[in-house]
Design brief:
CATH topology of the largest domain: TIM Barrel
Bound molecules: beta-D-glucopyranose
Oligomer: single chain
Mean pLDDT: 96
Structural class: alpha/beta
């Protein structure tokens, strides 16, 4: 095992031979604390990398090795050793999974937990004990530069996906949930003040964080932005009142890097426990403030106890036989990366092309001799953002390579990068079929790094004019054309959507993405992904967004909730995705028509695979409100299940909905309220109302 500082990278003196109970962990933490000087305690609370050389190192190659914080050699306490994510382990050369938005489109809790497990194993095998990559910020607007790092726009879905990643990672190392909270804009992230009242904060922007805390996440990273005037890293309402006191979070809070803390006293009083990744506002400055009596030592003790408890807890965690070089980018993880990409691809449209008699996909290779693959992204190693989430895998399978590997040698592939639209269209005209790969790269969207400037919020939500022209010209020459889109969130397709017979959304599909795209195109795998964010017809249907805003109001509505409120029809609804088979829903039932405010109800439905292929279906449960006394969205997601069905197979699917899941947050009473009345239980394959079956439930006092 690699040595990072002077304490070996495993758990130093914290390792015990047998697992400790929660009480024993607590006692051990208190015992260690009692042996520490004030300086030692304060040393637990910030990064161990020297500021100047650290900044240079980060510029040259961010997180190539773990970033340590709070190592204590005298007491044999290792520091936390930070590795970033979320699309894999950022350190060294690790497995690159599809981005989180793609994994969100898989709606697959078990898969996400397995991805978390693989990340945990690879991180620990390379000397980290802390994964800073559970990003669950809500996608409020698809222009958000870091959209790809989160799972989607819906709080319930985000919570379940984030909790699954936490579960998987924490079999091996600590998981950190970020960026707390309301961090949904990029360029202005260091200065924007998000104005939000208590109800949307509690109902829309926080429940997914609570879900991950309840799952046992060891740490939380604060966001850069301000919330109602106070930086999130100093925000007592967020960090102390809600996270630590109300939710009972027992882990610790780390700052986002560098600008996550602006001032010593405000940060500690606000509830910050560790300044990352350097010692700047903490360290000596913090020591002086305690000595001057400006900060109570009890706050320091509380922070250090939180840190020690998690270190001790995770010193008892793991499966040592699984760690080592052999585990990094091993065959099992490559297969997992491919499976995750296959399951994340969304089939948005699949119609007959020209005079064809059946849908264009899956491509039927019988009778085909020539395929044109078009667009410069077909040959790009395009795995997403190049900011702090950038993973450096040993290889990336491009879409063209994936298609080549999937096809028999008697089918000719012509590749044209599409720079010259005429020539691309000419190639398409002499081929049996055209596959166009179009979309974004890290140049168009990603984490905004001011120096040198890169990434940031998207300038526009459509494909480039060049790509749109190419798609239209190609289709005019050969109607048998499939468009495969690459990007981190919703793309507006209005200029060409009607003309294209087949459209796939492949997101940033990771190092095995090219294979996965080919698996879907040629039918080796039946597509099962569904959109984790609405694809609008127009930017006008989205909430206000200004990437330079210094202040912005967040409310109850965005995404499908906003579009339903305003009766705007989306191009592709939230939760939508096609399959090569068909599913029929019937027989919705509740186990009781009436329940009390502390009760729960079972909601059941039958789903049948009525096609000829085995397929996976994502069944969604929404709750709507009949005559609520307060403003409520038309409906909200309350459950989802992914299940595989063989042709002809019928399954009874069950959800349990508790009354408190139907509550709203009452600002007057400062509490959650379950309102007696009638609720709509809506079940089906997407959020589109016409797709949903309904049963009504009455809640009584
Ligand atoms: C990002 C975090 C990241 C941190 C470490 C920040 O700029 O916002 O997500 O974990 O850097 O690089």
């Amino acid at each position: 095992m690699k040595k990072i500082g002077n304490v070996p990278a495993e758990w130093g003196s914290l390792n015990t031979l047998k697992p400790l109970s929660k009480r024993q962990v607590d006692e051990k933490a208190k015992d260690l604390l009692s042996q520490m000087t004030l300086k030692e305690k304060i040393h637990q609370m910030s990064g161990d990398i020297p500021l100047v050389s650290g900044v240079i190192e980060m510029q040259l190659a961010y997180n190539k090795r773990p970033y340590p914080a709070g190592e204590n050699i005298r007491l044999g306490i290792p520091g936390i050793r930070f590795s970033d994510g979320p699309r894999g382990v950022v350190m060294y050369h690790s497995t690159c999974f599809p981005v989180s938005m793609a994994r969100g489109a898989a709606w697959d809790i078990d898969l996400e937990e397995r991805v978390g497990d693989a990340i945990g194993v690879e991180a620990r095998s390379q000397g980290a004990n802390f994964f800073g990559g559970v990003c669950i910020n809500l996608l409020r607007h698809p222009a958000w530069g870091r959209a790809q790092e989160t799972y989607g726009e819906d709080s319930f879905h985000l919570g379940e996906m984030g909790a699954a990643l936490v579960r998987g990672v924490q079999r091996h190392i600590m998981a950190c949930v970020k960026h707390y909270a309301a961090n949904s804009m990029e360029n202005a992230r260091f200065k924007v003040d998000v104005k939000i009242s208590e109800r949307p904060l509690r109902e829309v922007y926080l429940p997914h964080f609570k879900r991950c805390i309840d799952e046992g996440a060891a740490a939380v990273m604060s966001a850069y932005n301000k919330l109602n005037g106070a930086y999130c890293g100093h925000n007592g309402h967020l960090l102390r009142d809600i996270l630590k006191n109300e939710w009972g979070f027992e882990g610790f809070v780390i700052s986002d890097f560098l600008l996550g803390i602006r001032e010593t006293v405000a940060a500690v009083e606000g509830g910050m426990d560790i300044e990352m990744p350097f010692t700047w506002h903490f360290g000596k400055k913090l020591y002086r403030q305690v000595k001057r009596g400006r900060i109570r030592e009890s706050l320091i003790d509380d922070a250090v106890l939180r840190i020690l408890r998690q270190k001790i807890r995770f010193a008892q965690t793991g499966e040592p036989e699984r760690y080592g070089k052999h585990a990094v980018v091993c065959d099992a993880h490559k297969r997992l990366a491919r499976e995750a990409a296959q399951k994340s691809i969304v089939l948005l449209k699949n119609e007959c092309a020209g005079k064809g008699k059946k849908p264009l996909l899956p491509i039927d290779c019988g009778g085909i001799s020539k395929i044109a693959v078009l667009g410069k992204l077909a040959t790009a190693r395009n795995i997403g953002d190049s900011g702090s989430s950038m993973v450096r895998p040993p290889y990336v399978v491009t879409p063209l390579e994936g298609i080549q590997a999937a096809l028999a040698s008697d089918i000719k592939i012509i590749y044209n990068d599409g720079k010259n639209i005429q020539s691309a269209a000419r190639e398409a005209s002499v081929a049996d079929l055209a596959i166009i790969i179009a979309g974004y790269t890290h140049r168009h969207e990603g984490e905004y790094i001011p120096l040198p400037p890169k990434g940031g919020d998207r300038k526009c939500l459509s494909l480039s004019t060049h790509d749109e022209n190419m798609i239209q010209r190609v289709i005019s020459q050969n109607p048998a054309a499939v468009v495969v889109m690459i990007g981190g969130s919703a793309i507006i397709t209005e200029n060409w959507r009607e003309k294209a017979p087949a459209i796939l959304m492949a997101w940033y599909p990771g190092m095995e993405g090219g294979h996965a795209i080919a698996d879907i195109l040629f039918g080796k795998v039946n597509p099962s992904g569904k959109l984790p964010c609405v694809f609008p017809k127009s930017e006008k249907h989205l909430p206000f967004f200004n990437k330079k805003a210094t202040s912005i109001a967040y409310g109850l509505y965005h995404g499908y909730r906003l579009m339903e409120k305003n009766r705007h029809e989306p191009a592709f609804p939230f939760g939508f995705g096609l399959s090569y088979t068909t599913f029929v829903y019937d027989n919705i039932q509740l186990d009781k028509p009436v329940m009390g405010v502390f009760d729960s109800v079972r909601v059941l439905v039958d789903v049948t695979n009525t096609g000829n292929l085995t397929g996976e279906e994502i069944i969604q449960l929404y709750a709507g409100f009949v005559n609520p006394s307060v403003e409520r969205p038309v409906k909200e997601l309350k459950g989802f299940v992914k299940t595989e069905l063989a042709p002809g197979e019928r399954k009874r699917i069950e959800f349990i909905v508790t009354a408190d899941q139907l509550a709203y947050y009452c600002e007057v009473r400062s509490q959650w309220v379950v309102e007696p009345g009638v609720y709509r239980m809506l079940l089906g394959p997407s959020s589109r109302m016409e797709d949903l079956l309904e049963a009504q439930l009455r809640i009584t006092d």
